[in-house]
Amino acid sequence: MSKSIASVVFVRHGESQGNAKNVYTGWDDTPLSIKGEQEAEEAGLCLKAKGLKFDIVFTSALQRATKTAELALKVSGNSSVPVDKSWKLNARHSGGLQGLTQADAVEQYGEGKVTTWRSSYDILPACVDRSDPRHPVNDPKYADVDPDLLPPGGESLACTVRRVVPHWKEKIVPHIRAGESVMVAAHKNSLRALWKYLENVPDEDALDIKMMPASAPLVMEFQIPPVGDDLIFLRKYSLNAPTFNPKVRIDAALSNGATNKVFFLRHSESLGNAKGLYGGWEDAALSLKGEQQSVQAGLLLKQQGVTVNHVFTSVLQRAVRTAALVCSASDNVDVPTTRAWQLNPSHSGVLQGLTEKEAYEMYGEEKVKHWRGSDDVKPECVDNTDPRHPANDKLYSEVPVEELPGGESLQMTAARVIPYWTKCIVPLLTGEQNILVVAHRDSLRALFGHLEGVEAGTVFDGTSQTAPLVYEFGNDATFFKKYSLSTLSPELGLSPKSLGLVRFHNQPGVHYEKVGEVVILRHGESECNLKEQFTGWEDSGMTAKGIEQARKAGRFLKEHGFKFDMVFTSVLSRAIESAALICEESDNKDVPMEKAWQLNARHPGVLQGLTKKDAVSLYGKEKVNLWRGSYDVMPETVGLDDHRHPVNNPLYSGIPKRDLPPGGESLARTVDRIVPYWRGSIAPQVKAGKSVLIVGHKNSLKALFMYLEDTSEHDMFDVKPVSTTAPLVMEFGLCKFSDRLMILRKYFVKHTTEEGLALSQCKDGSFHK
User: Fold this and answer.
1) Are residues 153 and 199 both part of a single domain?
2) Quick check: 337 and 323 in contact, CB under 8 A?
3) Does residue 468 fall inside a structural domain?
């Protein structure tokens, strides 16, 4: 008999080698990158932590999805589960874009077309014909599929919906109805297509459906009607939403508003790990993969803007080197670092340096498993004449010999780790401190058991080599919340229909609460726009058409009764004038206006003031398109003696030179300046329930949207452009467990999405230079 309520787990594939190269992959069968493999293993750790067991798994025919499923299942103890692979769960076929980088795509098709294809629900990209190797009919994997059923050389999201939904109904739902536990591992747009159907999301909102990180499995719960091939969607939540200490009252822990965060990280892969050796206190170096894992962990800290105040590691080089690479990649240089032997792993005694096979041969499988599986049983010890005994290692020359172990149980490890934590680390938790601890599996398990008040042996080994596990502490150094840093990306977007049903796993009182709203417009047409020049930071005035565009936007806002508490704009006159006209027409002229250079347009370097024709003539089409079509490629910058450099403009006379762009910016650098401004100046207004107007520029707004919508650099052209006349509204909610803003609803005022996009285009079909 089937259950009346069913849960389905969805996993997004990890980063592929194509993603890492910033290539449109589509149906190209690119494998996972090292980072992607780690993401899949993290997802598996999360499944293991929840004790989930599956009866069947559905995935696509592409190896980046099948390998993700394989790794997640292996780590979570589900290796023997049958896996059903189908092309119908494949990624959206990207047509002529497949295999191209963003810059190549812009050069070949133009920015306007690429943006239209990527940000529209039902507009097909340029399709490849049947003679093209990228067409599915030429791939042996699909030799048994009727060619007429395969994509016609390219797909919109609407096309993807039409193949994914029947597969769900015909192949997956029967297993759910039969009471089986189901997991689906697929791709961004095949999952988005399915969720659009399951959540009944309107076509115009389908591309705004949030994706979870690859390391964070998503659960959807359904009610199962007695008959039919459909299910009723109830709610969705991330499996690794933060967990709270049930013994601590959150309001008491935060009584002074100050928290401390400790970022725990397991050292990256060592050469001993790679060889399958019991490492213990053997001082093995990191492998190449381990060094790459350390850098990934550091980039995650950098992405979250974490400033580390102090680092603690064991004395073993695999932990010390991990910490050094993490700090370097996260821009936390010259941080005080303490190395302590008390944070070393459990000493594995006579097993140290042996493979599992060798250990079984020497001591017997039963004995080895007893040593490894018991918290209070230590392995056979080495004596102090054995080279493996710490007394013979100069690392411990200043430690009394009687304190050094020749073998340890987990309880013995806890007996040295916990006092060190209490005596040396806890005193630093004085409020708003960020501490990084890089250690080992058993030393971390012992510490987590102490923090959570449970036996160390019962603590789930959820430490990752690429994503720190964060424990937050109140003013009395009592742990009250923990979460994986990799899952701290923006909260999952939900359709308005399902919003009232949102609850988080094991947190029935936690929900999204609507707070403020932001209305966003691009400035009206400027003189430089009229001349089709790259404007950048040039302070170009508005045309008569631009003035009318701003007034028209204001009238739309007035018709819909928008009243603002605050206006934010750049310091460039075209944005300031537009904001003033919009406010005047919408009866908001007395609203406070804050002008910030951080909201300026992207500085195009040597392109500033040039038409595209002149730019191509001077620098070549390939170089211009690379600068304009890439996320992190800097344009050629102007020198300090060039009038286009910001240091020569009185508008920026009070700003430190190091904060200003170095004569040009990539989109990545634009993100780096606008996100801190959002967090520090705009987000607090939204959290306070205010209604905010932002009048900005094409690329500064794109940079902001990439952050708010958690858009990867690979998907930068998925970001919808902003119109000068069609106000774009974002309604925000506040997630109580993370105190983060999320977009609840996004819509154009007065226009459909298609009309809003059309009004965003210039006369040549591109989207505001």
Assistant:
1) yes
2) yes
3) yes
Measured CA to CA, the distance from residue 722 to residue 707 in angstroms comes to 15
Domain end, chosen from 421, 454, 487, is at: 487
Q: Are 675 and 707 in contact (CB under 8 A)?
A: yes
CATH code: domain of residue 215: 3.40.50.1240
Contact 472, 480 (CB under 8 A): yes
Our count of domains for the chain comes to 3
Say if 612 falls within a structural domain.
Answer: no
Instruction: Give alpha helix (H) positions in 87-156.
Output: 102-109, 111-119
Q: Where in the sequence is the domain holding 697, given as residue range(s)?
A: 511-605+665-760
Q: Phi, psi (5° rounding) for residue 321? A: -65, -40
Share of the chain above pLDDT 90, in %: 63
Q: How many angstroms separate the CA atoms of 21 and 27, rounded? A: 16
Q: Which of 57, 54, 62 is nearest to 89 (CA)?
A: 62
Is residue 380 situated within a structural domain?
A: yes
Q: In terms of DSSP bridges, do strands 740-748 and 479-484 run parallel, antiparallel, or are they unpaired? A: unpaired
Residue 126, amino acid? A
Residue 695 confidence class, pLDDT cut points 50, 70, 90: very high
Question: Which token pair is 677?
Answer: 């401004």
Give yes or no: residues 284 and 217 share one domain: no
Four-residue CA torsion sign, 411, 417, 418, 419: positive
Q: Name the residue among 611, 529, 607, 614 with its Cα closest to residue 572.
A: 529
How far is CA 693 from its chain centroid?
A: 27
The three-state secondary structure class of 301 is helix
Tell me which of 210, 238, 266 is where a domain ends: 238
Interatomic CA distance for residues 709 and 711, integer angstroms: 5
Instruction: Judge if 212 and 267 occupy the same domain.
Output: no
Closest CA to 685 of 533, 542, 516: 516
Question: For residues 329 and 436, what is the distance between their CA atoms, to the nearest angstrom?
Answer: 14
Q: Decide if 471 contacts 479 (C-beta within 8 A).
A: yes
Q: Is residue 200 located within the same domain as residue 277?
A: no
Note whether 439 and 346 are within 8 A (CB): no
State which H helix or E strand residue 183 sits in: strand 182-186
Is residue 593 in a domain? Answer: yes
Per-residue pLDDT reduced to its tens digit, 495-530: 333 333 333 333 333 345 678 999 999 999 998 888
Q: Which long-range contacts (CB under 8 A, 24 or more apart) does 389-397 make?
A: 390/281, 390/341, 390/347, 393/281, 393/283, 395/283, 395/315, 395/316, 395/341, 396/315, 396/341
Cα–Cα dist 35/769, whole Å: 35
One-letter amino acid of 566: M
pLDDT tens track for 64-121: 999 999 999 999 999 999 999 999 999 999 999 999 988 889 889 988 888 889 888 8
Provide the sign of the torsion angle of the four alpha carbons 546, 550, 553, 559, taken in this order. Answer: negative
Return the H-helix or E-strand segment holding 124: none
- Whether 230 and 255 map to the same domain: the answer is no
Comparing C-alpha atoms, which of 691, 696, 663 is closest to residue 677?
Answer: 696
Note whether 287 and 327 are same-domain residues: yes
Based on the fold, state whether residues 456 and 572 are members of the same structural domain: no
3-state SS, residue 769: coil
Domain shared by 284 and 429, yes or no: yes
| Alpha carbons 603 and 621: distance in angstroms, whole number | 19
pLDDT at 715 over 90: no
Buried/exposed code over 322-339 (b: 16+ C-beta within 10 A; e: otherwise)? bbbbbbebbebeebebeb
Q: Which residue type occupies 417?
A: V
What pLDDT is attached to residue 201?
87
Say which DSSP state 519 is in. E
- Give residue-wise pLDDT tens across range 22-49: 899 999 999 999 888 988 988 998 888 7
With beta carbons less than 8 A apart as the criterion, state whether 308 and 335 touch: yes
Nearest by Cα to 542 from 572, 568, 521: 572
**Strand locations in 425-531, DSSP E?**
434-439, 469-473, 479-484, 512-522
